[in-house]
Amino acid sequence: MSVTRPGEPSAEADPRRWWGLVIIGLAQLMVVLDATIVNIALPSAQHDLGISNGNRQWVITAYTLAFGGLLLLGGRIADLVGRKRTFVIGLIGFAAASALGGAATSSGMLFGARALQGAFAAVLAPSALSLLTTNFTDPRERGRAFGIYGAIAGSGSAIGFIVGGLLTEYLNWRWCLYVNVPIAVIAVFGALSLLHDSDRRPGARLDIPGVVLGCGGLVAIVYGFSEAESRGWTDSLVLGLFAFGVALLAAFVWWQNRATQPLLPLHIIKDRNRAGCFLTMTLATIGLFGLFLFLTYYLQGILGWSPVRTGLGFLPLTVAIIIGSTQISARLLQHVSPRTLMVPGMLLAAGGMLLLTRITIRSDYATEVLPALLLMGLGMGLTFMPIFATATAGVAPQDSGVTSATVNTSQQVGGSIGTALLNTIATTSTAAYLTANLTNPADRARVLAEGTVHGYTVAIWWAAGVMVLAALVAGLMVTAKPPKYTARTSNRVPESVTSTEGRP
Description:
Helix content: over 70%
Radius of gyration: 22 Å
Number of domains: 2
Largest sheet: none
Order of helices and strands: HHHHHHHHHHHHHHHHHH
CATH superfamily of the largest domain: MFS general substrate transporter like domains
Oligomer: single chain
Structural class: mainly alpha
Shape: globular
CATH topology of the largest domain: Growth Hormone, Chain: A
Number of helices: 18
């Protein structure tokens, strides 16, 4: 029996695996940045297509809702029919939906195209993460690979602002969607030549009742948060959507205990460490996506920045996430437990949020916004990488797709809820401020601006509280130890997650 020394790749490792990581990273970057690339283009698209303020969030939410709602389905399809096949199908469909959105002539057409993008992203993203999981099994290589992946997942949203700003400024908002087409074409050719397909599972079937119950429940709950803005929290439709969503998810759990081939095997989420990672990811992205929406409108609408300048304003956040993920988390996770990184990461992010609560209509970027972005970036970089590595460690190969999908589901559902919930809080707070202070018509413009910023800061306070809650969850639930680098055969995996899967 050949023994592989710690830190050395196995003899059977594909020598092109790092080029494969480039293709996986490219696809993941496209998926993640598309959640935010249209944020900076949103004011222009809103003006061109006549989208109301109440409906503008659907340009973002239609994507994240379809993405988050269908990820479990996409992950299980990857497990059933092969990861490479679903990866390529997802790329092609995503490119087609992007072209449709770029050519949109109405708000409905744009919303529909964004939902289609989300649906194909739900096929693509789990395949990408599961391909990464199965191709990098050496602990040290796995740490580097997940550090890169975590940096992409964490910074992709911020990169979307930069790319969106450049495209909106020098071309127009439609190119924020068209740009995906050449990226997808490159990724398709790279996938066909560099990535290996996984074995199909003969006789495996899709859990249709699980798909209806699980996806339906997620969609109903996020839709309820979206409708709360215009209808109010006590509206019968809003309460009905929440109740219906919870009932569907409860039925989903009940059915997964009885299904012969469940959509989401419950042992995946019953593991304490994975459950803690999933919940931490959800809470982290609730705050992060809300921040993106508010800060974009603050820099453009209040400070009067151009789209390009706004996009570049997010560059420090991107750099900080990359440093936190690849230079800090990827190095330290070999020696410390995941929560040792996740808890400080979430507290740093919460500190950045608290700094942003001080913004006014005349705030200075360098002294009041930049420090907050740096803290947020380092915090997210410290958090995302150990989440991805810990949640996917020790999973049986036939469940790697749905496990990867559950991680992505946590991220995207958190983004959907964060955008809808925090936008509702901001809008409600702004309306209350204007009612109390808009008394002199001569001061209307100033009071409107102050009321808008007041709404942003109230919502950011809530986001900071969610980040602190994420730190608490990570500290209490994620009890995994550092990876143990014992000499093993070429198929060894890190023991960073203590699980009973596959054990007698």
